[in-house]
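Retry 2 of 3 after timeout on previous attempt. Resubmitting structure tokens to design endpoint.
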């Protein structure tokens, strides 16, 4: 295990809202922000109340009306590309801030999260250059043109497990299609996103286009969703929260996208390249400190390869380097909070009560020096008898793999689909007919074949069943962030029936 090091960066003593480009302290509760690697408090967030939400929504509305929605596409592209550049130029600083309140390993933050965050702006800048309308001229004498227009003010609500990578996708898409927004990061992880929004302004984003408020879901988040000035809501987070937000938005007929939880199956057939499947199974459950919606958390193995595969998996899991997230050699950092660590470890007893065998881990990782106060958990794996086990049904959201075995193809698919979730599924096999069948039979919004997670931004991303509502991605975002208007024009003056003329 690595030796403890100092904080990745110093945090501001207080984290405030950013409204119309200005830092504005709210009047709400003061909430502590912790460094998960040591458990030390590193700052405070000032919670924003209803009055702050009013200000932020009003600023977004003003920016929407006063120009952003009507800006020429080329001008909007130019600004989005500057936002891409500023995020890349500050990737290290942003990664350090993100690390400070998430404990995610710096290497992953720098090389994946912040590059993605920057790229999201370039992707949507390029997308809008080619966005098309539709024309219908089948009705003789008429031409109908379908155009897309910005919707208005969006509420963007982000989780704590990949704050900037996920929120930047929402911000970039929202802005590219001419909307303005109020962003609410998770109350646990406001630091990098606060700086991120500040940087967007420094790069030339007009004030009021992106506003940021802070606070807990039940206070700040709920007030934002319910605000009458908010036209649409894009949410990434847990399924129960998603239900509450969708219900509130539904009462007000606000469109929503919901990127929710997962319990994704990673199916390994005997016909797979087992070395690669093993590498990917480890990455699929232990990367991002085990806290990912896309995790392949249910590993389904064909019976005749199971024992050997599990033995190799366990040996590798025990070799994973747990430690200081700022050390580039570290492979697994701490969980995001003490409460989350306790919840994850609570699933060990849950698994045992369901008859599961603990294969490895299942306890706090003992760390030296300052890291002793961190929220570290050993990479954990259990073997269960059936997909009825609670560890196969509930999202644990930690470095916790559950193994199941199957004899036949049908058993594999039925176990994979035996879930309330349906975010993604992984299939490992070099037998083409098996792969073809599985991609049709799996009930998941994304199926990855012989690859770990690989997000294709052009394609829709989102879940079946309790894993979500709506999709994100190029065209999917265009649909969400625009209203459709059909304009019908006759090519020659039309004869209109004359009502109300005297008869006779
Ligand atoms: P969470 O649902 O607790 O919180 C997410 C966000 O919603 C936070 O900003 C929170 O403050 C806010 N919130 C909570 N209650 C609210 C309310 N009533 N009204 C408005 N806002 C409210 O989720 P989390 O614990 O931060 O994140 C982990 C969850 O997110 C996991 O379930 C994970 O699978 C999911 N997730 C999904 C995806 C995806 O793309 N499908 C990506 C990442 C994370």
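Retry 2 succeeded. Sequence:
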């Amino acid at each position: 295990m690595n030796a403890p090091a100092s904080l990745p960066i110093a945090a501001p003593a207080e984290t405030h809202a950013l409204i119309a480009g200005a830092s504005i302290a709210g009047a709400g509760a003061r909430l502590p922000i912790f460094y998960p690697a040591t458990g030390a408090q590193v700052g405070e967030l000032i919670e924003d109340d209803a009055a702050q939400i009013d200000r932020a929504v009003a600023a977004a509305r003003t920016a929407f009306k006063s120009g952003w929605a009507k800006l020429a596409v080329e001008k909007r592209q130019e600004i989005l590309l500057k936002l891409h550049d500023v995020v890349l130029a500050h990737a290290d600083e942003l990664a350090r801030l993100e690390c400070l309140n998430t404990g995610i390993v710096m290497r992953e933050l720098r090389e994946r999260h912040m590059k993605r965050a920057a790229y999201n702006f370039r992707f949507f800048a390029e997308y809008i250059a080619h966005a098309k309308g539709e024309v219908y001229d089948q009705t003789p004498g008429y031409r109908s043109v379908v155009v897309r227009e910005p919707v208005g003010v969006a509420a963007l609500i982000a989780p704590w497990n990949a704050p900037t990578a996920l929120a930047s996708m929402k911000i970039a898409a929202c802005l590219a299609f001419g909307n303005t927004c109020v962003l609410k990061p998770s109350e646990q992880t406001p630091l990098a996103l606060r700086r991120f929004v500040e940087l967007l302004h420094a790069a030339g984003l007009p004030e009021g286009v992106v506003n940021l408020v802070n606070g807990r879901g039940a206070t700040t988040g709920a007030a934002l969703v319910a605000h009458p000035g908010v036209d649409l809501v894009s949410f990434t987070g847990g399924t129960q929260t998603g239900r509450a937000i969708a219900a509130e938005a539904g009462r007000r007929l606000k469109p929503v996208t919901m990127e929710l939880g997962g319990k994704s199956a990673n199916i390994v057939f005997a016909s797979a390249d087992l070395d690669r499947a093993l590498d990917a199974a480890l990455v699929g459950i232990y990367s991002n400190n085990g806290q990912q919606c896309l995790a392949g958390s249910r590993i389904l193995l064909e019976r005749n390869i199971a024992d050997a595969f599990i033995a190799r998996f366990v040996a590798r899991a025990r070799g994973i380097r747990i430690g200081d997230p700022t050390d580039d050699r570290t492979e697994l950092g701490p969980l995001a909070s003490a409460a989350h660590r306790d919840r994850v470890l609570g699933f060990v007893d849950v698994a045992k009560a369901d008859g599961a065998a603990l294969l490895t881990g299942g306890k706090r990782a003992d760390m030296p020096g300052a890291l002793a106060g961190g929220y570290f958990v050993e990479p954990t794996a259990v073997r269960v008898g059936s997909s009825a086990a609670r560890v196969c049904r509930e999202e644990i959201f930690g470095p916790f793999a559950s193994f199941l075995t199957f004899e036949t193809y049908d058993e594999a698919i039925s176990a994979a689909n035996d879930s309330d979730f349906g975010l993604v599924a992984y299939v490992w096999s070099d037998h083409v007919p098996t792969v073809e069948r599985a991609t049709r039979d799996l009930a998941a919004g994304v199926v990855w074949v012989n690859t770990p997670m690989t997000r294709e931004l052009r394609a829709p991303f989102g879940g079946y069943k309790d894993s979500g509502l709506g999709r994100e991605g190029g065209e999917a975002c265009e649909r969400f962030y625009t209203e459709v208007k059909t304009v019908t024009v006759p090519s020659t003056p039309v004869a209109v029936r004359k009502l109300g003329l005297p008869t006779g």
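Attempt log closed. The CA atoms of residues 144 and 297 lie 49 Å apart.
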